[in-house]
Amino acid sequence: MKKTLNLRSMAAQTIEQVVEQGQSLSNVLPAMQHKVSDKDKALLQELCFGVLRTLPQLEWLVSKLMSRPMTGKQRTIHYLIMVGFYQLLYTRIPAHAALAETVEGAVAIKRQSLKGLINGVLRQFQRQQEELMAEASKHESRFLHPAWLLQRLKKAYPNQWQSIVEANNQRPPMWLRVNRQHKTREEWLALLAESGLEGHVHPQYRDAVRLETPAPVHALPGFEQGWVTVQDASAQGCVDLLDPQNGDTILDLCAAPGGKTTHILEAAPKARVLAVDIDEQRLKRVHENLQRLGMTAEVKSGDGRFPEQWCGQQQFDRILLDAPCSATGVIRRHPDIKWLRRDRDIAELAALQKEILEAIWPRLKSGGTLVYATCSILPEENSQQVAAFLAHHPEAKLVETGTPEKPGLQNLPSQEEGDGFFYAKLIKS
């Protein structure tokens, strides 16, 4: 039987769906991975993530080595060539194997007549690699970010934008959250050391541990029993600020996939938690997370702008609003964000955040706590959003997170730290 599955062509098709059709990588990739073995799953993921991480540089190389772009039905070949470049530049795959498999990719997508073209371009790149990469190192594409986003980062962070871009282009560290209902962080770290892995505590977030080297979840002591969860350190900061107490009625709004819902219940197992999200599909993950950790919460599908539809006139002691945002703080985990977002999205997202915040504030009891959070690093969605809210709500008091002039705490992504994240803690007087 002729082998028709070719990982390089599958990667090219996946990348094409993200870049050309605006599909999310987390939606497209699993369907492709479903067709291949576990070993091949990892390589397919590496090729897709890697090409999307380095896309501007690979695009620039294609433009240097091809006189005209591949269009229409040949477009997949454009991405297949990029997959070839990525392997030669960034992986340990032997060059001859990378070349042969990439050229064969044309057969799998029924473009056999273009094998010679692909082979020619990749070999030409090999011959000219040194001078091409020297030239590329001076070109704007070296930052691996779209121009509109670079512009916004330079404006918001004139002294830090380069370190932000650098952090975005790295592979993310693996952060875990130790379930304090089962083990203290120190007890669990001792078990981790016994299993031959090394972990580092976060100085600020009480449950957070960073693995020295990422590991599969089945290698983590007690993962199946719910002793530990994979969650970025910055995301854990939300619940530390919310400070949930037993007996509280708590709303986790925009809750999917459920990491913060379960963290609330680890901190306050006797709290009554309502987890709400607009995306029915992603709510399945909330149920899965609750089930793995043996927890109970009320889970509902609903739009944050219209709370009366899903909670009537109910009021809450604490509200965690992890608002829909540009996700510019988690690019290293989701490199497709750079190519799915558009400059115009930022104003639209800021308007949506304002609507949700205004709609949900009346649901907070007097004396209650609301934590507004985003995984964005753009001021329009963060400090500016909260400043505008405070100006219109004298009954809202900012605590523990900045000043009324410069409201909120902004984490920036960095190699040893968590993702980019923003928090503002408000008390209703």
From TrEMBL:
EC number of this enzyme: 2.1.1.176
Keywords: Cytoplasm, Methyltransferase, RNA-binding, rRNA processing, S-adenosyl-L-methionine, Transferase
Listed InterPro entries: MeTrfase_RsmB-F_NOP2_cat (IPR049560), MeTrfase_RsmB-F_NOP2_dom (IPR001678), NusB-like_sf (IPR035926), NusB_RsmB_TIM44 (IPR006027), RCMT (IPR023267), rRNA_ssu_MeTfrase_B (IPR004573), rRNA_ssu_MeTfrase_B_ent (IPR023541), RsmB-like_ferredoxin (IPR054728)
Record has Cytoplasm as a keyword: yes
Reaction catalyzed: cytidine(967) in 16S rRNA + S-adenosyl-L-methionine = 5-methylcytidine(967) in 16S rRNA + S-adenosyl-L-homocysteine + H(+)
Gene Ontology MF: a single term: methyltransferase activity
Chief location: cytoplasm
Residues noted as binding S-adenosyl-L-methionine in the record, renumbered to the chain: C254, A255, A256, P257, G258, G259, K260, D277, D303, D322
Gene3D superfamilies, alphabetized: Helix hairpin bin, NusB-like, Sun protein, domain 3, Vaccinia Virus protein VP39
GO biological process: methylation
Domain of life: Bacteria
UniProt subcellular location: Cytoplasm
Catalytic machinery residues: C375
Domain SAM-dependent MTase RsmB/NOP-type: 164-429
Keyword check for Protein transport: no
Top EC category: transferase
Family assignment from sequence similarity: Belongs to the class I-like SAM-binding methyltransferase superfamily. RsmB/NOP family.
Function statement: Specifically methylates the cytosine at position 967 (m5C967) of 16S rRNA.
PANTHER family in the record: NOL1_NOP2_SUN FAMILY PROTEIN _ ANTITERMINATION NUSB DOMAIN-CONTAINING PROTEIN, NOP2 YEAST -RELATED NOL1/NOP2/FMU SUN DOMAIN-CONTAINING
Protein name, entry field: Ribosomal RNA small subunit methyltransferase B
Gene symbol of the encoding locus: rsmB
